[in-house]
Design brief:
Elements lengths: L32 H17 L12 H17 L16
Helix pairs in contact: 1-2
Length: 94
């Protein structure tokens, strides 16, 4: 699919403090129709821009799109500069 336009959406996400608690590395979820549509739009937008995961591989599927989104949260939270990522003030979100 050839996209004519890609919209950029900014989010403010609440992150708890870092923890040593168990964090599952595997998720099996069923999305609603709206969620699946948004995920598809994210995948198409990332593909259009040629975005890549931190390991250097292009975003190629829905799982990669979720990985990419989590990597963007990580970059922002850790202040790691990323492609097209603007600095964010650290602090508590209200």
């Amino acid at each position: 699919m050839r996209l004519e336009q890609v919209n950029v959406v900014e989010l403010a996400l609440p992150l708890g403090p870092e923890t040593q608690d168990y964090a599952s590395r595997h998720l099996q979820i069923q999305l609603s129709g709206n969620q699946a549509g948004i995920l598809r739009r994210l995948l198409d937008g990332l593909d259009h821009r040629g975005d890549r995961l931190m390991v250097g591989r292009r975003v190629q599927n829905s799982a990669d799109a979720i990985r990419w989104a989590l990597e963007e949260v990580q970059r922002t939270a850790e202040g790691i500069p990323g492609e097209d990522v603007r600095p964010v003030k650290k602090g508590i979100l209200k």
